[in-house]
TrEMBL record:
Domain Peptidase M20 dimerisation stretches: 214-330
This protein's name: M20 family peptidase
UniProt cofactor(s): Zn(2+)
Coiled-coil residue windows: none
């Protein structure tokens, strides 16, 4: 279990004048190294982006894993590829750097895959000055480049040799293999070994200001299937034929909108189909057939809902199930839930990590990073470890248009994010293992 003492220890450390008096000599070298290797970092990003690694392109994901292995092994990491054929995914890259015995254990999280499969027309890295377009340029190949740049800066400054670091780069973050007990087993185990987890998905900015992510909401998929008695449309609402499947589905969705809203919750029906026959496949493609004068026999809707805690998830699920069960006359309906991603709830320990990062910002003469409203970012892999270890997300690059053609990364953000990460990891790594836990 997480101990509250860690929050206090990190908060005091982050608030102490000693941490706000400027960079050490080693930390200055880290910043200089990041700047000197900027073009190297951009070139690495270009190579990673140009290798398609859509989640279902298993060979492509494996190739990106090999490219990251080539970056990490020269830095002293022992790298292992974890195949995930059991869940129809490529696999994960796990890299371990053994440092000073008894030092704090730090977990770095990123992902190899993107949403852009080989069939997408958006395939190439195109640099435009301090910006670049490309599939996954921000999410999450930019984040992986920040990890490499930070570690190389630590090596140049002499702080990497004593650092105990484990890196988990999943190969299916955008479409996790099922069941999660298999596809996320390595990540969860790494979280239980760690004292701190840092996630290198994208940085979020508001009004030109970098924000810190101490929380991420969950995501749970759902599917509602409503059925009714079919017949001539002139007999709808009669005792014999009832309301029909489409009216039942509409009743349910309208009740969701009326009864579910509460803080930190969103819920969305993404696809709907209804008629004499109706279906929605696993890719979200809908098919329906019927006529205007036939009462619909079947209606299907798929969507998701997002919460800020596991307690909220359980409570909302219960309310949804109760709404679905209150059938309109002559109808039936059922709701099914997917595995989903858990929530990364805001905690005192996560807040203290952000305070430690803001101490780094002060020493780098960068603005303080306020906590980001968790409504403004989606679910992510770090949520699988957040119940076991204090966590901070959003240490990757600043980008826009993620998950769509034209995804654009701010290349300049590699510099400040790598400097922040190198210094933060070095400071955390110098602390005692389990200190404050």
């Amino acid at each position: 279990m997480r101990a509250t003492a860690l929050a206090g220890a990190l908060f005091l450390a982050a608030s102490a004048p000693a941490l706000a008096q400027g960079l050490s000599r080693a930390e200055t070298v880290m910043g200089q190294t990041v700047d000197a290797e900027y073009e190297r970092s951009v070139a690495l990003l270009g190579r990673l982006v140009d290798q398609n690694s859509g989640t279902l392109n298993l060979d492509g994901v494996t190739r990106v894993g090999a490219m990251m292995r080539a970056e990490l092994e020269p830095l002293g990491f022992t790298v292992e590829w974890k195949p995930m054929a059991a869940v129809q995914r490529a696999g994960h890259l796990v890299a371990v750097h053994a440092g000073r015995p008894g030092g704090k254990r730090i977990l770095l999280i990123g992902h190899l895959d993107t949403v852009f499969e080989p069939s997408s027309p958006f395939q190439k890295f195109v640099r435009k000055g301090d910006k670049a377009e490309g599939p996954g340029a921000g999410d999450d190949k930019g984040g992986m480049v920040v990890i490499v740049a930070a570690l190389r800066a630590m090596q140049a400054a002499g702080t990497l040799k004593d650092a105990n670091i484990e890196i988990v780069l999943t190969g299916d973050e955008e479409d996790a293999g099922s069941p999660h007990r298999i596809s996320r087993a390595d990540l969860i185990a790494a979280g239980r070994r760690a004292d701190v987890a840092l996630d290198f998905e994208g940085l979020v900015t508001e009004g030109g200001r970098d924000m810190g992510s101490i929380a991420r909401r969950s995501v749970t998929d759902w599917r509602i299937t409503a059925t009714g008695r079919t017949g001539h449309s002139s007999l709808i609402f009669t005792p014999d034929l009832g309301d029909g499947a489409i009216h039942e589905l509409v009743r349910i969705l309208a009740a969701f909108r009326e009864e579910l809203p509460e803080p930190n919750l969103t819920f969305n029906p993404g696809v709907i189909a209804g008629g004499a026959t109706a279906s929605i496949d696993e890719s979200g493609n809908a098919a329906a057939a019927g006529k205007t004068n036939i009462i619909a026999r079947t209606a299907v809707a798929t969507g998701d809902f997002r919460t800020l805690s596991e307690e909220q998830t359980a409570r909302v699920r219960g309310k949804m199930e109760a709404i679905v069960a209150a059938h309109a006359p002559g109808t039936d309906a059922k709701i099914e839930f997917g595995e989903g991603y858990p929530a990364m709830a805001p905690t005192a320990g996560n807040t203290a990590l952000l305070a430690a990062l803001n101490a780094v910002n002060r020493d780098l003469k960068l603005p303080e990073m306020p906590p980001l409203d968790p409504l403004k970012r989606g679910a992510g892999d770090i949520s699988f470890v957040a119940n076991d270890v204090d966590s901070l997300a959003g240490l990757g690059t600043d980008s826009s248009g993620d998950h769509a053609p034209g995804e654009t990364v701010d290349l300049a953000s590699i510099r400040r994010q790598a400097k922040r990460a190198a210094i933060l990891i070095s400071r955390l790594a110098s602390e005692r293992e389990g200190a404050g836990r």
